From TrEMBL:
The chain crosses the membrane at residues 49-66, 75-94, 123-139. Gene3D superfamilies: 1.10.287.130, Histidine kinase-like ATPase, C-terminal domain. It comes from Aquitalea aquatica. It comes from the Bacteria. It catalyses: ATP + protein L-histidine = ADP + protein N-phospho-L-histidine. This is histidine kinase. Keywords: Kinase, Membrane, Phosphoprotein, Transferase, Transmembrane, Transmembrane helix. Residues 313-501 form the Histidine kinase domain. The keyword Phosphoprotein applies. CDD domains: HisKA. Its EC number is 2.7.13.3.
Length: 517
């Protein structure tokens, strides 16, 4: 019999059988010490019985020692069962033969043998028991005819042998069914465990917060993103923010519906959808929630990706023909003599420069992620910046004032900071009165933040324009590209800073991280 057909390991099987043997022997010894109603012991406790008990106890100890030995496990089990059968038949002979009833003790042993063995071995053990019983009956028959002239009860022996075969086969069949059920349960358990791990992996990989609720709104399952939105999330709790939504879902005949959670414990605005689970008696709902700020950020990333592809196309498809147009316009301007031709060539050059400026601003978006931060001392940086700005716009030279309420340094990308300030100061100068001090750059510090304010004396933005101020391609001037402020804010965020417009006057504030020297 292959070892793998045993429902237990060989060591545990033999230990189980030995335990059963020892228990039966102790019961018999205990019964030999008790007396019946007629004053006779329940079990004949004569010297022969105690000798039998000593021999059987020795066999139990022997089999217990051999359970870790080198004897093949099937052979060891077969020898043990055969020895048990012979010992029970001997006990039966010591107490009056088949009619004593001790032959019934064979049935538990055959049952155990059927549980621990295959079908052919179960029949083999039953055959050993039958042969032993009929051998004893033959021996008694021989003794009777020689000594006493009585015969053994062959009918009772046949019934006992038949009961032994039935017990062996029934217990074997039960054990086989149990083994098959155990193997099936083990396989299904493994499949269910793998499926649960897969479901957990899929659940945790979701970018949305996934929350499974029952009809009462009690949390049954969730992922890590849900914990981010609802701190303290655990199974079996009732979330106050979601309970009214589940109640509306129940009143709405369990149909899918959108979800909006105005505020949760962290002040987030969540939106998503709700999908019902209606399988048999199971009534529940799965909520898929996203932070609206995260959705806005994702939309921004998609927009940036589209702009990135646009900048690549612009770089390859527009700049080369634009350079040719500009060069042709310059050549035409050199040979233009009449006023009409000069006006037309000036229009070509101006619009070519305007398109080139748009290309430059769009290409700036591609540099958003290429950040090389460094410690920048603002006093020196602003002095150099205003000098370069005055060279680009001579009418602004010396008219822009700087006020330092704090001699601070910032941690910023030098090129990005120059681009942001260039855009802000150019806008401020364009909308100011352009007198001395009409545009000011003010530096102050608030805790760990350095605030750079660009202030002008212009009329400022109206309320409608303020809501679209930092959107791409939004402009209040026909000559503007609408990308300047959008790019400035993107560059600020790339440096972990923030650019805001402070109404009602024309004040832009850049909040940067203070750099400790």
């Amino acid at each position: 019999m292959p070892e793998r057909s045993l429902p237990l390991t060989p060591r545990k099987a033999l230990a189980f059988v030995n335990g059963f043997r020892a228990l039966m022997l102790l019961v018999l010894l205990f019964m030999s010490m008790l007396q019946g109603t007629e004053g006779q012991p329940l079990v004949d406790g004569g010297a022969r019985f105690y000798l039998w008990s000593a021999v059987y106890g020795g066999l139990i100890l022997c089999w217990f020692a051999l359970r870790t030995g080198k004897i093949a496990h099937t052979l060891q089990l077969s020898l043990a069962i055969a020895a048990d059968i012979l010992m029970i038949v001997l006990l039966m002979g010591l107490n009056g033969g088949v009619k004593s009833g001790y032959g019934m003790l064979l049935l538990p042993y055959l049952a155990v043998a059927g549980l621990l063995s295959s079908g052919r071995y179960a029949l083999f053990y039953a055959s050993i028991a039958t042969a032993s019983l009929f051998g004893y009956v033959g021996y008694e028959h021989y003794r009777h005819e020689v000594l006493f002239g009585s015969t053994a009860d062959l009918f009772q022996t046949g019934l006992l042998s038949l009961a032994g075969f039935v017990t062996s086969m029934v217990t074997y069949q039960l054990a086989r069914v149990a083994r098959e059920s155990e193997e099936l349960a083990s396989r299904r358990g493994g499949e269910i465990a793998n499926l649960n791990r897969l479901n957990e992996l899929v659940l945790q990989s979701q970018r949305d917060a996934v929350i499974v609720l029952d009809e009462t709104g009690t949390v049954r399952q969730f992922n890590a993103q849900a914990v981010r939105y609802f701190p303290g999330m655990q199974r079996g709790i009732l979330l106050p923010e979601l309970a009214p939504i589940v109640e509306r879902w129940r009143l709405n005949s369990h149909s899918p519906m959108p979800v909006f959670v105005e505020r949760n414990v962290r002040g987030r605005q969540l939106a998503g959808r709700m999908v019902p689970i209606l399988a048999g008696d199971l009534r529940g709902v799965v909520m898929f929630l996203r932070d609206m700020a995260d959705m806005a950020e994702e939309a921004k990333r998609i927009k940036l990706a589209a702009l990135g592809r646009l900048t690549a196309n612009i770089a390859h498809e527009i700049r080369n023909p634009l350079a040719a147009i500009s060069h042709a316009g310059d050549l035409l301007a050199e040979g233009a003599e009449d006023a009409a031709t000069q006006r037309l060539t000036r229009i070509v050059r101006d619009n070519a420069r305007r398109i080139n400026g748009l290309v430059e601003e769009v290409l700036m978006l591609g540099r958003r992620d290429r950040v090389k931060t460094e410690t920048i001392k603002l006093s020196q940086f602003l002095a150099d910046f205003l000098e370069q700005f005055g060279m680009a716009q001579p009418e602004a030279a010396g008219r822009i004032l700087t006020t330092f309420h704090s001699s601070s340094s910032v941690y910023f990308d030098r090129g990005h900071l120059g681009q942001i300030l260039s855009n802000l100061v150019a806008n401020a100068w364009r909308h100011s009165s352009r007198v001395h001090g009409a545009v000011q750059i003010e530096i102050s510090q608030l805790e760990s933040q350095v605030l750079i304010r660009v202030i002008d004396d212009g009329p400022g933005m109206n309320e409608d324009a303020q809501s679209h101020l930092f959107e791409p391609f939004f402009t209040t001037e026909s000559s503007g590209t609408g990308l300047g402020l959008y790019i400035a804010r993107e560059l600020a965020e790339a440096n972990d800073a923030r650019l805001d417009y402070i109404p009602p006057g024309g004040v832009f504030r850049l909040s940067c991280h203070h750099a400790y020297e």
